[in-house]
Write a structure and sequence with these properties.
Layout lengths: L2 H8 L5 H4 L2 H7 L9 H15 L3 E2 L21 H8 L13 E6 L4 H10 L8 E4 L5 E4 L9 E4 L2
Parallel strand pairs: 3-5
Antiparallel strand pairs: 1-2, 2-4, 3-4
Helix pairs in contact: 1-4
């Protein structure tokens, strides 16, 4: 698939505002798609359309208890990034590289989602990492070059 074909298909499921932080969206608006690598867009499409086949919530910017604003692509002025760098920690999250998302999967738990992804991993176009032991679905495109479609990690 070309990038254009991937974007046309992916836009049926996501608005770019859901996938990037509010700082990035404020600067680039709908043009923010260019910041997300094609391989990651393709991975998100396959994950949503073919593997999970359920709605995914990343950022939602609502004024409720479910106010998610830094679950997708993060920039240098996002609070999570500021907090880590203030501790003199190196912050090399895949979220900063625009190849990570944290999702709530509507209709299943995060663990059920991880199990479904593992069961259908042959559909993944690129290797991914999944974070274990968290109540959300973290998926990223860091490749450990271990020949596996899925690498699990603990934060």
């Amino acid at each position: 698939m070309t990038r254009t074909q991937i974007l046309i298909a992916l836009k049926k499921y996501f608005n770019v505002k859901e996938l990037v932080c509010n700082h990035v969206y404020s600067r680039f608006n709908e043009g923010a798609w260019f910041l997300i690598p094609t391989f990651w867009l393709h991975t998100l499409l396959i994950l949503r359309r073919d593997i999970l086949q359920l709605p995914l919530i990343c950022n939602n910017y609502q004024s409720t208890n479910d106010n998610y604003t830094q679950r997708g692509c993060r920039c240098n002025i996002c609070q999570i990034v500021k907090d880590e760098t203030a501790k003199n920690n190196s912050y090399n999250s895949a979220h900063l590289k625009n190849v990570a998302n944290d999702f709530t999967v509507i209709g299943m738990t995060a663990e059920q989602a991880r199990q479904r992804i593992a069961a259908r991993q042959n559909l993944l176009p690129y290797p991914i990492r999944l974070e274990r032991g968290v109540s959300w679905l973290h998926i990223d495109g860091y490749d450990n070059d271990n020949g596996q479609k899925i690498t699990y990690f603990d934060a």
